[in-house]
Amino acid sequence: MVRVRLSDKRLDAIRPKNRAYDIWDSEAPGLIVRVTPLGHRSYMLCRRMPGKTNPTRRLIAEVGAVQQEAARKIARDWTALVVQGVDPGSLRMQQTAEKPVLTFRVLAETYIKKRVRALRRGAAAEREVRQLIDRWGKLPVPELTRTQVVAFVEELGARSPSMAHRLFAHLRALFNWARERGTVEVSPCDMIRPGKLTGNLEPRQRTLTEAEVRAFWIATGNIPYPHGPLHRLVLLTGARLREVADAQWDEFDLTEKVWNVPPERNKSRAIHIVPLSDEAVRLITALPRYRYCPFLFTADERNAVRNMHTPKARIDDEMRKVLGRQPTPWVVHDLRRVVRSRMAEMGIREEVAERVLGHGAKDKLVRTYNTYSYLPEVREALDRWGEVVGK
């Protein structure tokens, strides 16, 4: 029989045939890759087992679940057992019966508790990790293969490439964390490049036209608290949707007309001071306040508002009534691009417009030596923007 050195390149080149066949490794005696007509590939040990007349195969793992060197080590260890008169298949069954099965749900819940909740955007990350739990929660961790991950990324990428990239990033981070702790030996995410499966993500270029901004302002005026005023404040401040949705009353000084976004909710991880225009102050002053709720925007008088999909659909519907047509697809984050683009049109300097969005200087030397906050200029810019929006 022909023996070859199993490598990633050779394994990727394997193609199924009409009948199952074996590829023998040249480095570990007895180690084979079994290829089925459906294309399934598995590492196996093929030897004459104790009490058997003919060579018998014993499953080691699916290709992709373990690296080649790990498969070779297992094959050599099992060969040593065979020499001692022990069938590794029966031993493995005994060990499996005695050892509790680690499911993906248990691993992911531990990851959420020990790692995700400590992240700056932990709440959003936890929601996305839980989508992975919904997919694979009951599956034993060793049974999650690269093939399954690829299928998941491709399936989700056909609907939402950005979501496919984000969920894959969470899955890869989860397994890297588990591997660092010694919980798992290999990751099914190794060698997967989501850009090759779904295409690389292109930076969004969508911005709303002047007519669409006007339609948005009228539409949100027709939508009651909390979502109408919430989305209006996003446009007035240029802040991120989640920053506004999670805003708390004690972050605002309406006398000084400022909003202090704390570092744990700001992408730059520093306090972001947002000057408030007269239009923004009027909007905030008109909001209801609830005794046991610290948040500006709430649906249950206790917690920050969460559901954003339904209100967005309502805004689109109201905009359609104003425009006389369905608005070109857009997302709420595009409002930040509206603010930035319109400020450029208004002649506001780049460094000031960037500070409006909470961005620091792009150049590292400038960030190091220019520590000026541009707060007076940012206030003037947002005051002018508030006048434009409120007309």
TrEMBL record:
SUPFAM superfamilies: DNA breaking-rejoining enzymes (SSF56349). Keywords: DNA integration, DNA recombination, DNA-binding. GO terms for biological process: DNA integration; DNA recombination. Residues 102-179 form the Core-binding (CB) domain. Residues 203-383 form the Tyr recombinase domain. Pfam families: Arm-DNA-bind_3, Phage_integrase. CDD domains: INT_P4_C. InterPro entries: CB (IPR044068), DNA_brk_join_enz (IPR011010), Integrase-like_cat_sf (IPR013762), Integrase_catalytic (IPR002104), Integrase_DNA-bd_sf (IPR038488), Integrase_DNA_bind_dom (IPR025166), Integrase_recombinase_N (IPR010998), Phage_Integrase (IPR050808). Belongs to the 'phage' integrase family. This is Site-specific recombinase XerD. It comes from Devosia enhydra.
